[in-house]
């Protein structure tokens, strides 16, 4: 696929994945009987890989618009994902020479990004008084199930994403500097 094609379809793909995340999250919550709150983050997983195909300014703009949509659709409070998604895109872009050296660093990066997003959004909503945060309950009932679900997704999707985004160890862009 050409770079132009990636540039055109990336926002559409990420938007559709964001909608799919909502459906997966809803199904996972209903399967747990409402006790656990596993949140699917396929969009963030694909965002990490999309960084390899685009300039940082383009990905920050895409992440900003996706954050606005995410906030309006899922959170109801503007500013949380609108702030965090572009920061995640910049973070991954700045460390991509390390992240894309092997599969384990990609997996651990995804774990760190999802954990950071969940914790930061919980802390921000608590700090501004939109919710109360019991950190132990948050870790047990939301963060741990979310990480288990997304580690599974990241592990299963790793080979297809490497093929789709044409990631090879021999690519000079991903050599350590």
Give the SSE layout.
Elements (H helix, E strand, L loop, with lengths): L2 H29 L10 H9 L5 H20 L4 H15 L1 H4 L3 H25 L7 H30 L13
Describe the structure.
The structure is a single chain. With 177 residues, the protein is mostly helical. Helices cover 75% and strands 0% of the residues. It contains seven helices and no strands. The model has no long low-confidence stretch (mean pLDDT 91).
Structural class by SSE content: mainly alpha
What profile does the largest beta sheet have? none
How much of the polypeptide forms β-strand, as a percent range?
under 5%
Report the C-alpha radius of gyration, rounded.
Answer: 16 Å
Summed over residues and divided by their number, the pLDDT gives a mean of 91
Which tags fit this structure?
globular; 7 helices; mainly alpha; 177 residues
Summarize the structure.
By secondary structure, the chain is mainly α. The protein is 75% helix and 0% strand. Helix 1 packs antiparallel against helix 2 (42-50), helix 4 (80-94) runs antiparallel to helix 6 and helix 6 packs antiparallel against helix 7.
